[in-house]
Design a protein that fits this description.
Length: 121
């Protein structure tokens, strides 16, 4: 199975917005008026709409609503997710619903396959 991180894995529909030193989904950004030309965040910095090319050192969730945003992971991010999934299986640590979202998105990680088998068994 191809590692989606090595191909163009940015989902075509995905756009995220960077503002206030955080990442937001498009709906939350629109609600804040950040979809207008020249929009600035509360710190006076230009709001940026990002359509690809971003990677996360941890899985990305919207700052406003918490929605999981399927931004590809760096190697550090893959290690982070692997550890989080393993910790859940070993100690029950973590939020099951969120970890399932992570495992389904980053299914190519060996830990994700093991995790999904275990929680869906
Ligand atoms: Zn949101």
């Amino acid at each position: 199975m191809a590692n989606p991180r090595l191909v163009d894995s940015w989902p075509r529909h995905l756009e995220v917005v960077t503002a206030d030193a955080a990442i937001w989904c498009a709906s939350c950004a629109e609600r804040r008026g950040w979809d207008k030309d020249g929009a600035v965040d509360t710190e006076g910095n230009e709001v940026e709409w990002v359509f690809g090319g971003m990677e996360g050192n941890t899985p990305t969730h919207c700052e406003g609503c918490g929605t999981f945003l399927p931004v590809p992971l760096t190697r550090a991010g893959e290690a982070y997710v692997t550890e989080a999934l393993n910790e859940f299986l070993e100690d029950g640590y973590g939020i099951r619903k969120i970890l399932i979202e992570w495992a389904e998105e980053f299914y190519y990680l060996p830990a994700a396959e093991k995790f999904l088998k275990a929680v869906k068994a």
